Amino acid sequence: MTKTQVFKFGGASIKDADSIKNLANIFRNRLRKNLIIVVSAMGKTTNSLEELLELRINEEDWYQKSAILESYHYSICEELFPEGHSVFSRIKNWFIQLKNEIERPVSKENYDEAYDRIVAFGELIATTIVMEYLCSQGLIVLWQDARELISTNADFRFAKIDWNQTEKLCRSQLLPKLDQFPVLTQGFIGADANGRTTTLGREGSDFTAAILASCLDACSVTIWKDVPGVLNADPKRFENPLLFDELDYRQAAQMTFYGASVIHPKTIKPLANKSIPLFVKSFLNPDAKGTKIHATGIQNPIPTLILKERQILVTFQVTDFSFIEEHHIHEVYRELDQLKLRVNLLQTSAISISIVIDYQVYKLEKLVEKLKGIFKVRYNEDLQLLTILNPEEELVRKFSGTYSILLEQVTRTTFQLVGKPK
């Protein structure tokens, strides 16, 4: 049996009808048995679903935004399918289910579980449309609900994988199908032991591709992006970025840890453990070489710039005359773990602990409430975190001058600053 390949397509690659037609063209010469296709929600659908949930929690009118989102998907279908095609009734059914989920009781306390139930519809709707279009073009694929494959715990929004159960499900559910046709499934979503929908963390579709590849001992994973491969800087923010022809697993993992958005942070480990190469290629230029991530054993010395938006700097200061000790850090990290907040940068002084975290709805107020009895808590919102890996002195000097810096950290291989652009 030929080894499985996994392709992953993000939201930008299916944002409109022309993009979906382009995806079909990519498959004309590549579609074969033993191929798994992982697809994200279309365009900015996930953002829209997050906004719907927030409107619902705040008891504001969410119906108009829901209608706009539904219309967006219908308009794509109208360009791809003839009137009366069965896809329209299928999409209508998904939106009826979505509205029923939004109307269920929801509060700040059960936000994470409601989030997973609602946001998952983006992937379910997108894969339905893509599957129907590919089949209409004679490119037959089988639709698979990822919640029947990806088994997780109940840590909603950041679910952890039950690897043993997931592998059993992948082998029993996927292998018989892959021997006949390619399989199309959703990224980002799974289900817990009780069948409740979970998600793997924002932008988690890359991780889904890696999970499926690892469980089936695939020969490769290819992530299709709107960039030519892995670059040393985001081309939307920095001029003249350089393309990496290849990267070692460790260097790629380090880049994702600091926030490089081209690959989800959890993607590398399961692939490296099985020595499965990861290709990052352009869906705009599918025949170009792209970037290959594998075991090179070599660190590429090119400086890499990574920018994270919507960062929050939180400082916890002791309220008496004692100094910061290990138990203070333990108190902070215990609450961060409870709230599933990841620290992007940590710095301690004699009397304070400073952390940088991503913005997440309602999480900051909960963190402050939990720790205000132990520390004096201060925070700054809407900041940027700039990381330069393999920094050069001239580059550090250039960017330092463009920020009002609140915090700075330097190691042998990394320069980081937190602040606001001047």
TrEMBL record:
Family indicated by similarity: Belongs to the aspartokinase family.
UniProt keyword list: Amino-acid biosynthesis, ATP-binding, Kinase, Nucleotide-binding, Transferase
EC number: 2.7.2.4
PANTHER family (UniProt xref): ASPARTATE KINASE (PTHR21499), ASPARTOKINASE (PTHR21499:SF59)
InterPro entries: AceGlu_kinase-like_sf (IPR036393), Asp/Glu/Uridylate_kinase (IPR001048), Asp_kinase (IPR001341), AsparK_Bifunc_asparK/hSer_DH (IPR042199)
GO process annotations (BP): homoserine biosynthetic process; lysine biosynthetic process via diaminopimelate; threonine biosynthetic process
Organism whose genome encodes this protein: Algoriphagus faecimaris
Superkingdom in the source lineage: Bacteria
Pathway: Amino-acid biosynthesis; L-methionine biosynthesis via de novo pathway; L-homoserine from L-aspartate: step 1/3; Amino-acid biosynthesis; L-lysine biosynthesis via DAP pathway; (S)-tetrahydrodipicolinate from L-aspartate: step 1/4; Amino-acid biosynthesis; L-threonine biosynthesis; L-threonine from L-aspartate: step 1/5
MF GO annotations: aspartate kinase activity; ATP binding
Gene Ontology CC: one annotated term: cytosol
Protein name: Aspartokinase
Reaction(s) catalysed (UniProt annotation): L-aspartate + ATP = 4-phospho-L-aspartate + ADP
The Aspartate/glutamate/uridylate kinase domain, residue ranges: 3-282
